[in-house]
Specification:
Layout: H1 14-17, E1 52-56, E2 62-66, E3 69-72, E4 77-80, H2 97-102, E5 104-112, E6 117-126, E7 139-146, E8 155-156, E9 167-175, H3 179-184, E10 186-193, E11 201-209, E12 218-224, H4 234-237, H5 246-260, E13 261-272, H6 280-283, E14 295-304, E15 317-324, E16 333-334, E17 345-353, H7 356-359, E18 363-370, E19 378-385, H8 392-402, E20 408-415
Antiparallel strand pairs: 1-2, 3-4, 5-6, 5-12, 6-9, 7-8, 7-10, 10-11, 13-14, 13-20, 14-17, 15-16, 15-18, 18-19
């Protein structure tokens, strides 16, 4: 701006020069140019003069929550960060247009405690948003368990062509789901439109906390699809907006849990008493030729939701077991390698000839590895079972020692800590 010497400055201010908002839509004045810049101080002005508004966070703390709108073409419209984030069955959003525009989804959930399986029966969807040029969509539903969504726990239905009211009636099953998972995990159901020539487009999603499902009972859900919460993106949100949204805190928690859990392992333990001791008086003299000492039979059944260790998003897993202390180094056993899978089935058994008093002082170490040709194998996860461990490892071990001759199966959560007594090979 130029000013005349000895006179007052021109009445045209910089705010008036910037009084045109170039965003799509009607032209509207901007009160202050400072409104373009985020105020990160908790004492910033309210929403009337700043695009950032204070919103209460967890634990009584206050976090800054952006009220800007980010354009997301892949979702077929703009996404407001201050829209509802509650994607459970009850609709808490004040904007009902999302529900009518995206559609509804019906499904059933059932958890069977005896088999540690979660069954999700995807029934139908109604009034889905059109994503194709012909006014229809090619919808399918994919499932993820949160936190820790990854390719390992992804399940997918078939695709229904050219329909906005698809009917699937398809049951998808998660194995290795513990009761602890039912209390802390959330099931995310995402409805997508399949495109053969381009990327698949997201229509909407619904999230259900598994703690709402009672054990061994089927629960029916009829939910409205909603936009997913925004993910942290440095290019979309900028340096000033990262870490100030409550959504980012949820994402960070998912990353922490995904680092702790490396998958699930189904093991069976059975202590077999010595063969022939009870039958000695019946069979008479046999010289003990067909007799075998008692021992521990370890069955490696299967793994589920393993961490991906290869660049293709999969792993080549195998299992190693040790019974320690192992001074002679003869207790090592390995399963076969299963190629390119995150949910392998082994169904292999290994036998250790040992007496029951000796077994009480042993530690069973079970580790899962990713096989790599020409270089060191990658450690995926492991678990220890003994009288000195805790949690499921201790319970499984004690059940085996108390129920002689009975096969006891239990799922175990693999940890990302390599046992100190175990060496790489």
């Amino acid at each position: 701006m130029m000013a005349l010497r000895g006179r007052k400055k021109l009445s045209i201010s910089i705010q008036e020069h910037m009084a045109i908002d170039v965003c799509p839509g009607p032209i509207r004045p901007i009160r202050q140019i400072s409104a373009y810049f985020p105020r990160l101080s908790p004492t910033s002005p309210g929403p009337a003069s700043s695009p950032l508004a204070l919103s209460p966070g967890g634990g009584g703390a206050h976090l800054l929550s952006p009220t800007l709108s980010l354009s997301r073409p892949s979702m077929g419209g703009s996404l407001s960060l201050n829209s509802s984030v509650d994607t459970s069955v009850e609709i808490t959003s004040d904007d009902s247009d999302d529900c009518t525009a995206l559609g509804t989804l019906e499904f059933d959930l059932r958890y069977e405690r005896s088999s540690s399986e979660l069954h999700c029966t995807v029934l139908r969807a109604k009034g889905l948003k059109s994503m194709d040029f012909n006014g229809l969509s090619d919808p399918y539903v994919k499932l993820h368990l949160l936190p820790g969504a990854c390719k390992a726990n992804k399940l997918k239905t078939k695709t229904i062509r050219n329909s906005l009211n698809p009917v699937w009636n398809e049951t998808l099953t998660y194995v290795g789901i513990t009761e602890e998972d039912m209390h802390r995990k959330t099931l995310r159901l995402t409805v997508c439109d399949e495109d053969k020539l381009t990327h698949n487009e997201l229509i909407g999603e619904s999230r259900v906390p598994l703690k709402r499902v009672k054990l061994d009972q089927t629960k029916h859900f009829h939910t409205c699809l909603e936009h997913p919460p925004p993910m942290p993106s440095p290019t979309a949100m900028g340096e000033a907006l990262r870490g100030i949204s409550c959504y980012l805190r949820e994402w960070e928690n998912e990353q922490l849990h995904s680092l702790e859990e490396r998958g699930r392992l189904l093991l069976s333990l059975q202590f077999q008493p010595p063969v022939g001791l009870e039958e000695t008086g019946v069979e008479g003299g046999g010289g003990g030729a067909g007799r075998r000492g008692g021992g521990l039979c370890v069955g490696v059944r299967r793994c589920a939701h393993l961490a991906a260790m290869d660049v293709n998003g999969f792993s080549d897993p195998y299992v190693k077991i040790y019974l320690k202390p192992d001074l002679q180094k003869k207790s090592k056993h390995k399963t076969a390698v299963m190629k390119k899978t995150l949910n392998p089935e082994f169904n292999e058994e290994f036998f250790y000839e040992i007496s029951l008093p000796e077994l009480a002082h042993k530690v069973l170490e079970v580790t899962v590895w990713d096989y790599d040709l020409g270089r060191s194998n990658d450690f995926i996860g492991g678990v220890c079972l003994s009288c000195h461990t805790q949690g499921d490892g201790l319970r499984h071990w004690m059940d085996c020692l108390k129920n002689l001759g009975s096969r006891v199966e239990r799922w175990h959560i693999l940890t990302n800590e390599l046992p100190q007594t175990l060496g790489h090979d």
